[in-house]
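Deviation from plan, reported transparently: calcium ion complex.
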Amino acid sequence: MKKITSILVMTLAAPALLASTRISSPSGSLVVTVDADADGTPYYTVDYRGREILGRSPLGFRMADGMDFTYGLGLESSVADTVRRSFGQDRIKRSRVDWHATHQTTTFKGADGREMGVEWEVADNDIAFRYIIPAQGEKRAAVIERENTAFCFPEGSKITATPQSDPMIGWKRTKPSYEEFHIVEAPLDQKSQYGHGFTFPVLFNVGGEGDAWVLLNETGVDGYYCGSRLGDFDGSLFSIEYPMPEENNGNGTAAPGIALPGKTPWRTITVGETLAPVVETVVPWSVVEPRYEVAEPARPGKGTWSWLLWQDGSINYDDQVKFIDLAAEMGYDNVLVDNWWDRNIGRDRMADLIKYARSKGVNVILWYSSSGHWNDIEQSPVNHMDRPVVRKKEMKWLRDNGVRNIKVDFFGGDKQETMRLYEDILSDAADYGIDVIFHGCTLPRGWERMYPNFVGAEAALASENLVFSQDFCDLEANQATLYPFMRNAVASLEFGGTVLNRRLNKGNDGGSLRRTGDAFQLATAVLYQNPVQNFALAPNNLTDAPVEAIEFMKEVPTTWDDIRFIDGYPGRYVVMARRHGSRWYVAAVNAMSEPVEVMVDLAALGTSADRAVLYTDTSDLQKLEKKVVKVKGGKLKLKIVPNGGSVTLLN
Ligand code: CA
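Because the crystal trials were delayed, the predicted structure below was used instead.
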């Protein structure tokens, strides 16, 4: 054995002799092969349990000054080692992360002195890789104009994704803000709606024999780089693309600037034969580090939010008192006061309102626009989050008045300049003990770990669309079966959901019509993970919603210790379990036109509970049923009706 080990080490230590580098995950299930082709173009391939997941996929990039790392390079590799990282992590799907991966750096060198490293971490279901760029001779700064990084899926693969929107369109020219409808299992060559490709994360059903799934994403994106996306299929590849120059009203560069030596964000590839590795992945948090410490941990919690159903007209003192009283009645921590509070309530009366809320044990979350000079937002407060001088003054006012959480809305896209703004807001807020939610924003990329006071983001067609359009109500169940496999698999999702009004207006008597059952709505409180939940409940729900629904909404947690994918298929149905303490919550929703039956194996959850509390919708969706059932043989059968849902409590 000893002899074999020493031969292995010798082989790895003699890189010049290797034609290519093979990086195997700890169990050997996932294998990345790195090499350069005859022209010296760096590439990699991915295999999972012997099956091709990605064919020859290029690596490399071009700098704006013409220095090119896409050809004429030879490969050298470091010795492979194993990394194990175990840490507690609040605000995500698991309270403890255990990361075990093979780590290796492959270095590509040109005869002219060009040098580019690619750092790899290969776990049993997840790959993370990033570029390590050393100083190039005297050069200590670079602009990365374009990446060659791409993904080559086998023929017959299908894509599930949301398109990147045109820049500077939509409400007050605020897009892109990751608020687009999904395409589901489309052929690879289907052009994206706007012609700008797709935003992360992107799900692929891999072509070939049997099932294989891949989720592409990126993590560790901060003010040192831009956010990226996938371009449209070019006939063989999906390539990494940078923001569009027109984003952020044209301010700031599309190409990121980087100090040398430097590193790019991690790009990640999650692979499984089932969807469990996708739903349960922790790769976004496993390869990044906290950027700063906070004096107090973030405050998870539940809250009420008048704006969703009562809209702008509710941003007045008296209506906010009603939602504070509702929060107090529900035992909630927060009330979210949305746009126009500075104009319609005013700062002096807001100080009184905050005092009133605190007398009821409720914290006030205040809304801000991020802008600024990058969109036409007039909803105020504006111009308080866009520069450090005004921002810090505002943070002090917030702290002095007892506000500990803000929601900042309407950002300007994915440029490095905008990533820097997110980071600056978080960093300043942390100094004043304030937690931050983002709306109208980009996808958070590892931010729960990087920023200890980051408590959620929208970056989805969230609950406001139920109010805005009947079309979205008609698709609500369909969208709910996609988030667990996509958006919410990689980051907190502040959806603002659980609507118990039948009609999406203040009087519960007009506006768009909810198509889903009450149990469906309860299920989304578990399905959509975010540490701070601002639910779409209204005071009338205390008397017109089922008593059982209100009881459940008082009790449901917003923090989770563990997660299990049980069953489902994107766009059809999903059954997943989250654990809080010793109790499992199994949430299920069905977007198909037929009922679905799923057997839940309690052994897979590690529980031997012999009774379950079950909330389900009747098939006409008119009634919420609560039952206590005996669990027989360690298995529980769930039946979920079309547009319905269920939540099962096990402990
Ligand atoms: Ca929005």
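Residues 19 and 35 are 7 Å apart (CA to CA). We consider this an acceptable substitute for the interim report.
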